[in-house]
Queue: 2 jobs
Job 1
Amino acid sequence: MKKTILVVEDNPAVLFNLKITLEFDNYDVITAENGKEGIKVLSEMDTIPTLIISDIMMPEMNGYEFFKTVSLNPDWSFIPFLFLTAKATPEDVRFGKLLGVDDYITKPFIAEDLLAVIKGKIIRYNERNLIRKQIEEQILSSFHENSPHPLSVDPNSSISLLFFAWDEERGPELINIYPKDPPQRSELMYEVGIQLFQASVSIFGQHGYYGSAGVLLNVQNIGQDSYVFFDAKKDKQIRGGEKLFMLAVLAPNINYFKSLKINELFLKISSKIKQSTEWNIKKRWEEVSQILNSL
Amino acid sequence: MIMKQNINDESQNKIMFLKGGEKDLITLHKVIQLTLCHNITVNEFFNKIISLISPAMQTPSDIHVRILYEENEYKSEDFKDYQWTYSSKIVVFGSISGILEVKSCSNEGKFLRREIVIIDTITKEICKYLEQNQLRIRLQETESQLCELTDGLSNWIWFPEQRELKAFLRKQAKQKTHEYIDKEYQIEQIIESVSEGILVLDTEGKIIFANKAIKDYFHKIMGEILLIGTNIVLSDRDHIFLKPIKQIFMGTASNYTTIEAIPGLYLQFCSSSNIMHEFGSMGPIIEVKNVTSFIEYNNMRKQFISNVSHELRTPISVVIQSITNLKIFKKHLSEEVQDQLIDYILNNAKLMANLIEDLLIGSKIDDSKMKFVWDYYQPQQIIQEVITQLEPKWKAKKIFIDLFINERIKLIGDVKRMAQVFRILLDNAIKYSEAKKEVRINVLNHYQGVFNPKNLEGILIQFIDYGRGIHEKDLPQLFDRFYRAEDVQGIQGTGLGLSIAKELVESHKGAIFVESTYRKGSIFSVFLPYLSDTLETKEKKITDYQVEVKGG
């Protein structure tokens, strides 16, 4: 099946050429002339596109707003998103990347480069998507026996921050959890955390990559979204020389845009863990809550 | 009864005022007498001055006085730092050497006007005294040196005219000393008034010398008066202005350090090597230069280069894309598509040519090297061409262009330049218009009205858009080169267009005007007079502007 790419660009000449380049590379191309129209096209499509390419400076709705709207929508937020723009100062590029787009390409560009980036993004996206689905399925099956899960009917459902590490003999080991109260809830969180870790390790392992990777999961049967992040700390005493650890946020609703911000935060915590520096779980939990509670 | 009361009050006030005046006169008299005494030390002088000030004030018991002079501090008894302060600078030979502070704890509020005048007058007298004192001391030193010399001489030889010689030498010495002091004073004055700041420290970091510029910076940036003799290097104060001075003193500064001392004021610090002084070692001499205009220009230049490169990126991108597609897929592309791609290449190459033309004109206007080719032209025809040229732009925004013109008009001018003016104005109208709105071009022949104050025979061309409009505060600078309003930083542009349009219109003896309502739209009006077409004026006009441009 042909893959579909949505191109949002206000300059007709650039758009016309992009269409030719992409179509000859065997993609279906759908176009829009600005962000507003892009949103309209997206909402009218039967199946979502495989990738979005967008200009930044456009009338009516610019690329920044368009990206934000796309990433706040759970149906669209997983679509790889590229900026293709004439805004090329280092500050512009930094700003664009900070927003969390998958890549930032400046005009003028070479067609081969653009095509290579698109191909790479799609492969990675498919892989991620597969992993995500597999983990979600495995967790789903592990909670089947006692459904409905008590967390899914928990009226005080809130945000939890979990820190696990892999022990060679014992398997997943809880290092820290916040909040610890009420104990009943943290007990459940512990259980979910163990399942997350086990499922993720087995599936990530199959695909052969650990280390600084995050994935946003929807754990349907417990009514929670989770952002799970893996990394490894150097440890000579362990076989393989690395100790795998997991940071996870469980919350009723995490969208893609917010998961990007949580990822930034987790990278910071991770570098502290790797250097064996202390970090305050309560303070970090507050930062996570701030991200999730912001608009 | 009430009247009488009022009159009484008034006379009472007058008596008070006169009494106040009397008090001032007495104080001033005492101060002047003091300045005429030559047999007291500076310490005694300052202490006496301090004792004279408080009685001259309205409420002497609430007054405290302090004088900071060079490294010394003189205070009235039980000096306290009260709420109200009035301070007056002590300036000796043009340089601030100290400060006189009067503090009051009176509940009645700030100082009276009369009190301020008397404090300032006393300070002036102090300055005069100190200047004279310095001159006197130097004179005495030289004289006594000379006396020693002549006395020593007379011990060896005796001759009848010795007495006359002595007197003569003394007179000469006096004169030479005065000349020397004058010269020294002159040099000091020159250094003092140099616009660059000059600061000299000793080896311990104390200030030996600071000229007016440095003191002004210090006052402006730190809000304090810089006193000779203080040590700003060893103090643990951490201020952006002190940091480079400290670094230079410690030898850790790079050759030139530039700081933004306060918003919009950039200072560059550099130091000379330490010089050995006859009487001990002097520390570094620090020069402080105001480089604000350079930095501002540089920022503008950087912004401009980034704008220009940005303007070029999209058309170059289109050219590369189109050529790549033609090259790789030519066999598979229909003729129509191929033609379309070639058109894109041509249009975008033209767009870049226009941009380069704008840039070149900018620099030609600078060097007044503009060459005009005067000929007849029809504005309606040129405007039509410009509309076609910009078609991709207005089509992309779904803008309708309405051209209102009802007769054939013939003008004299440079066709290429006028096309440039119209292109700039139409391009702006499209760029800043809202999508799906109309842009209107009105051409009025034989126009008489506000845009034609001299009632010349000519035409008015108006470009009307219904777009974002222009803030009132941006209007005065709108035609300045590189100027771009803050709220359009996200929209492409070099900040050159309108300045070029204005220059070109004016070189056609015309004028350009803008009216705008923020968030509603703008109207740019160009008035072009009919220029007479006699050969004479034509030639004259050419020589007005024609200076051969070298190169292509």
Job 2
Amino acid sequence: MSRQVRMVGSAVALAALLLAAGTARPETADDAHAGPMERILRTTDQILAVLKDPALKVPEKKAERRAKVLALIDARFNWTDIAQRTLATYWAPRTPEERKEFIDLFKDLLKRTYMSKIEGYAGEKIIYKGERIEGSYARVDVIIVSTKGVDIPVQYSMKKYDAGGWLIYDIAIEGVKLVNNYRTQFSSMLNSMAYPQFVEKLKAKVAETKDE
Amino acid sequence: MKKLSVELTVGVFVLLALILFGYFSIKVGSADSVGSDGYELIARFSDVGNLKNGSAVVIAGVPIGRVNGIALRDYQAEVRKAVAPDVKIQEDAIATVKSRGLLGESLIEISPGGSETILASGQRIRETQPAIDLYGLVAKYIFSQKSGGGIE
């Protein structure tokens, strides 16, 4: 992978880390009515609780712990929207089956690429800068202070969906967006090969990505 | 007589070169891809770098418009651009400020999205990516070198 892709990879891992770092917050309003930042804060707390749970830290509980963290992250993202934005102009011609297959593959790719980094959370500090809401869209700005003392700006792009309320559809780190990064890669692949070939390549990529 | 014809030839060549130089200077600097019947889109960036009025707007490297105006709004750069009428931009398209060429000329690159909703005149491309601050990234890299470097 190129240097830029690796950089974005690290950045996305950090963004995911954000979901795993925060301070305990009391449960207040009903989750369905929670605003964009409130939702990120809650998920953060929940993931942190799982990661810190001593009962789940033992090696034989690793799979269970991972499943719990994944379920929490899963519920905060709108995967269909992310997949559509990533596949971009190649989304419209896809059949419902192809779309479902792509969503699962892409999710799997992200999971395998970043999960071990989330589990390696080392106490990074998080500063919540605030949220900006414009109609049914919102941005949540956060700064992650790495253990080396470097500030990393992270921005969550969220949308209020009819089903599910406020969900994440993109993450930007240092101004570099996840969707745009994968959109560029996939578009250049799909320019030079047919869709079935692209899916095969994606499957091979998922298979070769180590699932630690 | 022979001497004169050599001077004349050189003169003609110099004149021709000057005319060509003038022609290309005007052609490069002018808005040539979008007529007055283009429609206007807006995009907000946290940093536009060297972007200027008249900077190109491209899709896949093909010019499809020009920057019409840059103003500060809510402490962000609001860029207005005229887009050719036959080019449809989806609601989830992403506008990125990029540099191109030897002189680092800035332009806006639009990567088309997958949404069925097409932006109408006066609407905003919501997803944008600012000019990459290379100096900032280099500085971060340098200051984190002590313990291994990088943002990881």
